[in-house]
Write a structure and sequence with these properties.
About 55% of the residues lie in helices and about 5% in strands. With about 150 residues, the chain is mostly helical. It has two domains: about 70 residues, no CATH class; about 70 residues, no CATH class.
Length: about 150
């Protein structure tokens, strides 16, 4: 299974100016959430374009928070892929996968280098630090550390 095989992505919803504020984007987004829910998919938020930034940041986040849809924020896709590649998401349901994603996000943000830089949001610029934390948390590494 590829890391994003069980993921549906939403990049942007663009509505012609004449049809804005009529609930069309909300309905389209609801359809994507319904699809994700009924097909047991995780929703991946992609980086919005400048045009979609306001909608994505406010409306999209509010709609997601009110539903039971597991989702990957656009800035954590790299981390989800890394966790999957390192088998740290194996045998987990979608909600557990997202919970694990956010647990690792917190651990990585506690990395001394990121604390020193006062980093609040992860992205691919911190791949080295992410890999350090992931490698230290892999099951075989934990076993080796206990044997030392």
């Amino acid at each position: 299974m590829t890391p994003l095989e069980n993921v549906v992505s939403l990049s942007n919803i663009e509505i012609h100016e004449d049809y804005k504020n009529k609930g069309i984007a909300t309905r389209l987004f609801q359809d994507v959430m319904d699809y994700a829910r009924s097909n047991n998919k995780i929703l991946k938020r992609s980086l919005p374009t400048d045009d979609g930034q306001n909608y994505i940041e406010k409306k999209f986040s509010n709609l997601l928070n009110g539903n039971d849809i597991p989702y990957i924020p656009y800035n954590l896709v790299f981390l989800y892929e890394r966790l999957s590649e390192n088998h740290l998401l194996d045998n987990k349901n979608n909600h557990e996968k997202i919970s694990t994603l956010h647990e690792f996000e917190k651990k990585i943000l506690e990395h001394p280098k990121l604390k020193e830089l006062d980093v609040k949001i992860l992205n691919m610029n911190f791949l080295k630090e992410a890999d350090e934390i992931i490698q230290s948390q892999k099951p075989q590494n934990r076993l080796k550390n206990k044997l030392k």
